[in-house]
Amino acid sequence: MMMAGGLSLALVLLVIGIAIGLRLARRQSKTNAAMSQDERERMLQMLHELGAWTSEYSGNVSQYQSRLGELSDAVRVDPAVHQAAPKVVSLLQQIMDSNSQLKSRLDAAERQLDKQTKQIESYLTEARTDGLTGLYNRRAFDQRLDELFAAFRKGGRSFVFVLVDIDHFKSFNDTHGHQVGDQVLQQVAKTLRLELQESIMVARFGGEEFSVLMNGPLRIAAEKMNEVRKKMAALQIEIGAKKLSVTISVGLTEPRDDLVVSPVVRRADEALYAAKNIGRNRVYYHDGKGAMLVGAPEVARG
């Protein structure tokens, strides 16, 4: 009975844990306050541990039930306990019935926990992912940028902030329709994801603009983005029977003696503006003094 009571209490605590987790996840999906990566991982780890715990106890209860059945059978045929057998068998049967009910509840809790863990994972993913491209969204990116900048201010590693803009994107929508525009966004996102697998984060910044967090130094990151630019320009995006060429403009910078992160974003934006204003399909980096082109102009046009 103590075992049944203990497990029943554990089930109550388990249900409370699930309810708290769901409430946190739903609140997270409806507010602008983002959970940190560590908090998300801790929540999911807790749920997986609860699932493993439930599964383990379910197995223990099954073994317990099996042993009770063996004991009941032994009592029925043992002459030494013939007179007491009816009472013993009745008691064992009551315990087995209670244990069977407990096993059913535990199995149901295990299934519910698995279902709700998947729901919470879905909530957390939706809160951080752009639905069209599958990349991280602006909120997730801003949070990661703030985390990196705070660490940098405390003496941590530097990083490179990158803005990527699709050239003449409006013309894709105006000429071919918004569905084609969406396909262009998806293809650019796919290319960035594949070419920048070693980066810290790739995200959709908004509209036709993407953002990337990379490891430094700045000039090496700029050369890498220029290679990505060239590959993008050489890529033919098939839209039905049509093949479209897409180019990108890129601006990037790194934190310097900034007290807040906004000047970092501003410098990257200035570098991107220079790339677009001088002819597009170019990469410019801002070293704190001004925007500078990566490569010779004739190379950048390619």
TrEMBL record:
EC number(s) recorded for this UniProt protein: 2.7.7.65
Protein's UniProt keywords contain Transmembrane: no
InterPro entries: Diguanylate_Cyclase, GGDEF_dom, Nucleotide_cyclase, Rev_trsase/Diguanyl_cyclase
SMART domains: GGDEF
Record-level GO cellular component terms: plasma membrane
Keywords: Coiled coil, Nucleotidyltransferase, Transferase
SUPFAM superfamilies per UniProt: Nucleotide cyclase
Coiled-coil regions, chain positions: 92-126
MF terms in GO: diguanylate cyclase activity
A Pfam short name: GGDEF
Record's keyword annotation contains Coiled coil: yes
Span of domain GGDEF: 157-288
PROSITE patterns noted in UniProt: GGDEF (PS50887)
Catalytic activity: 2 GTP = 3',3'-c-di-GMP + 2 diphosphate
Enzyme class: transferase
CDD domains for this protein: GGDEF (cd01949)
A GO biological-process term: cell adhesion involved in single-species biofilm formation
UniProt protein name: diguanylate cyclase
Gene: adrA
